[in-house]
Fold each of these.
Amino acid sequence: MFSLKDNFKFLDDGIDFPFYNDVPKLSTADWAIVLISVILVIITISLLSSHHALKSVMIFLITIIPALYICKRNYGLFFKRIRLKDIKTIILSFLGYILYVMLIATPILALMHYPLAGNGILPIAEQLSPTFIVTIFLQLMGEEFLKIFMLLLIMYAIYKSTGNRDISLFIGIVGSLFVFGMAHYTAYSGRIFQILLIQGLGSIFNLYAYMKTKNVFVSYIVHLMIDFSGFIMSAIQAGVH
């Protein structure tokens, strides 16, 4: 029989996820703030999809303020120094994403003859303007907290009723990836399979970086590497043509 027991030992790094098991404890109001933050981010992405700079700043503020607030000045719950062994996690996560997209996601979509949609920000990205670079740095930090907030919210809800960390983590991962993928629905013209395969399931690699280290800086760096590699390739292709 399939069992989740001990299946997540590879994520153990001597530090557990915060909050889901009331260590440290958040009030109902605190959890409500986290949930509202997630909802507002999704609304912002949908309504401001054509206003890149404003959208990026809003996503950053809507997530970073609640994140700092629930830490209650114990910012190490989310933000830690990068350790030498974290560099290995960053590199493996980045390479894992590239291989996944090249060898799994793209071939599956090609076999399905599924029409792909480009991200609406790519024309801006091709220019790699200073404004774009600054705002994308802000937005990607906000996107990391969107995934982390969803993970912790679901873990808290499931752990509260089951007391089982592994089941809570498994459902939290699935829920986090699904919500993050669907948040890109407007940006990728509603191409649902592309969204779920690349933006959804593909984000497991930077979520893994967070889950392994419990450090948002690590997953943030992976996310930056993934997105900027795509932007740079787009700029190179635009230059060639």
Amino acid sequence: MLTNADMKFGSIKNEKGEEVEISEERAVSYLRSRDRSVRKAAFESLYKPYSEMKNTLGATFDGMLKTSKFYADVRKYPSPLAAALDSDNIPISVYDRLVDTLESNLTPLHRYLEVRKRVLRVKELHMYDLYPPLVEDPFKEISWTNAKDMMFRALEPLGDEYLSIVKEGLEGRWVDVFPNKGKRSGAYSWGSYGTHPYIMMNYTNNLNDVSTLVHEMGHSMHSFYSKKKQPYPTSDYCIFTAEVASTTNEVLFLNDLISETSAKKKRLYLLNRRLENIRTTVYRQTMFASFERDVHRLTAEGGDTTPDSLQNLWYDLNRKYYGPDVVIDEPLKMEWARIPHFYSPFYVYQYATGFSAATALAAQILENGVSSRERYLNFLSMGGSDHPINLLKSAGVDMSDPKPVEKVVSVFTNTLEEMEKLL
């Protein structure tokens, strides 16, 4: 209620010089503006109320940290991290290895930010310069029919059976496609045991929405295979594996678009899209995971978790991840207070592990064909019948090993090199 209802973000002038009221959602939209002064104004407007409420937000955050420590202590866990990972039997080494591997491979990210600075033609790259696309979206209008065709083509490596079920779902009205009066925003996949899955989305004829369809279909197909093969008690799957099924589809989709595109502008746009996907889902979420590990450890050791110490820790992490060529603006010190996932401790790392596993699986499916595909479909069918690390091992990816994360770094580096050649 505090951040969603009570905070007031003021107003800024848009690209036309018109005064517009700012909300959290509008600020994020204006951060993508081609007009740098609008981006800067939106950035400052977004963080101003957080700074004004830093003591309240800091106390709330500190309460969450102490609560997490209390429950870990009374249940005899060695740490809040161990307590959070225990339900899915995830070794702490998996978490630590993710953070350590990414933090040992920050150079490609720093190189990408140098390219961004050069393309935007700015003397200094500020945090509000990370949001606008480097290449304007060339995919203007994509009809629903074309969206389905694009998805079918991208998912061909998953085989005829997979595609026939996807087709059955589309023809059988599994998907609530278009925006409508009274319909909620966003997209999700849902269902129950004994029924087929359903997808709710709001398709508006752009590439992001096609990608959303592909992503949600990944979730739905995971549910379809799992509920078909598993008894009720083991038909549900945890977040650690859920994001793998959806993101594997997304990776296959973007790989297909890039492989089918030779036009320079479109190819540059798609390459930049892949870089941003990895930057925001792997690097950024791992930075979040590093922050969580540090603040929970600090609390467990009786350390200082005042608003100022949280701000300084957040600033130092951003400096480390984004490198010396990015100006870490003062308002960004309060960004930790904007991340609601932190109130579900040690959740966000699963976005990074999910993307890493999906990248490795998609590469195996494309390179090895039938054998890797069958392992992957079997993984979908296994639902929650084993611990997630074991399930992914059966699919061909060992998340206790740094190789899947290193694979993502390699994809990022190769994509950046190709993009630099085209610029």
Amino acid sequence: MEITCRQLTQEEFQDALAIRIKVFVDEQNVPIELEQDEYDQKATHFGAFVNGKLVGTGRLVITEEGGKIGRMAVLKEYRGSGAGLKLLNFIVDYCQQLGLKQAYLSSQTHAIGFYEKAGFKAEGGIYDDAGIPHRTMRIMF
């Protein structure tokens, strides 16, 4: 299985959006109006491909704090394949290439261990986002 990661084209973003809807709206019951937001237009979108097929996506929004990673989603049948971690590391590397001092994200609590594998550390308390418990995580460069 060959896993590659790269920045997505505008056309590929529609496929990424379909993955996000499948994961967040269909599987996790997040209201579609909360899943898509104003940051999609200004974000840089990334994809993980297995043998050329888009199987995972994430986005990066540059803020005053640094790089805000979000909307990380991998199709159910590819979870555990390494595609998500490879994509996360790719986005973190991109942040470093931009000269950012840190990256941060809002992790669903069940996924904290996944982000820790890439060097992120949990901070603060647990809070609700779209009916799902989350925690802020951060990595410093």
Amino acid sequence: MAFFLISAAPAFPDDFLVSPPPKSMDKYYAEPGTPSEWVTQMQTLSTAFSSVFVNMEKKRWDQAEKKAALFLKSYEKASQMVPEWEKEFDLKSAAELKESIEAKDIEKIGALSEALGKTCSHCHLKNNSSVWIRYHWPSTDTIKVLDPLEDKEVSYPAYMKKLSDSLQRISVNFEQNDFQQAWQTLEIFKKRLTSLKSVCSKCHVSEWTKSSVSVKDFFVGEDILYSLQKIKKDFATGEPSEKIFRKNIDYINNRSCKMCHLVHQPPAFIQRAWKQKK
């Protein structure tokens, strides 16, 4: 007995855009750090939907009927929570699914479960990304970073510009054989990179306090500082190796800068675009 709990490989529409979610969603994310009523409702209906078919497979039709009733009730409630998305809900199929389970109409149950799965996937494809970006990714506009060189707090974008400039100056000075200046700029970059670790905890609060391996280890961990140390050690010889320098600078660029940007820049850029359109 197989049913479509979710639609297989749904496709994005040609005109797909990541637009801000409706303002009516704001009330479900009003208190940061507390479970969203909207997410809780989605989990309730999703679990009820899956439970229907788990019980059917076990021939527990009485339980399947109870879960179908719970799914319908949860589905109807969810459809009313965000008025702008009401049309995304296939209330007719949800009601018919309950009736089909009561009638043990296997063929119709299969068709209705597939239809509902496609409806859910369609809505998720359209709206999940925008909800995550708006409510689950804090804006960098609220982040301040202490610049260890200037001993003052600066905005996150300003700090990242200073950090990038510090890194670029290492390579520029090295290419011009100004190794003493390259050494000095490496120290500046190291101080700013180390200070950047404090930024992680501004968003990853629970991970910072509960995990033995902190999120800071992903992009500004000891491996990055070790690469800087290897460059510095090679500088100390007086005749630094181009191969050693490039290997370690490339590691920092790819493992720290690039990887962090791949994760964090897309939502930040989208947030900025939404803000500019207001």
